Amino acid sequence: MPPPPNPPAALPPWHIPNFILRVEDLDHKGASIFFENVKPSAALKLAVEASYTWLYTPLTAPTHVQSITLVLRSFEGVAYTFGSHTDKEIHFSLDYIAGSASRARDEILGVLVHEVVHCYQYNAKDTCPGGLIEGIADFVRLNAGYVPPHWRPAGGDRWDAGYDATAYFLNWIEKHCGKGTIRKLNAFMKDLKYDEKVFTAVAGDSVNKLWDLYCQQLEKRR
């Protein structure tokens, strides 16, 4: 009798960085809303796992990010991310959180997913257009299920308008060309400078032709 086959090797777990939280005004209404709706560590872990799920596989997921610091403070705007190769920092507006009280949990998690993507996505050696960078972040947010009520698929003159406009286009590409297409797009931007030909490589056609087809299909639905 032949020996039983070896069990398949277990996939490596996602690498979860160290999370650090800094709150600059505990008396701010936004701080109370934040803590009433999410647990910081769990929320950041969810955001990291969403980034990995939609942009990587367990074998390709990067492990260079060692820490993510979340700073809750009062400022105009929503949030932004910066940092070194290994240590990232996300600043999240307490004023914005306070203004999102009616749907606080989903909005907090959605913003965190978007910003954490910026900690992990490849950017073609700093040559990727900003609209595509933001579109990929919102593509992950869209697929993680934290969609604001005002988001709608929309055409227009530019595929790289960014944020939800580009996110819905990327999501259409993902469905039109097959699951994992945006993961491939991200992977292509790891070591190469940006060139629109990347869309032909991963999606089989130029980005402008894909955009035209996407807009045509939106028109038909209307």
Automatic annotation (TrEMBL):
Top-level lineage group: Eukaryota
InterPro entries: Uncharacterised_BSP
Record Pfam families: BSP
Protein name, per record: Plant basic secretory protein
Organism: Hydnomerulius pinastri MD-312
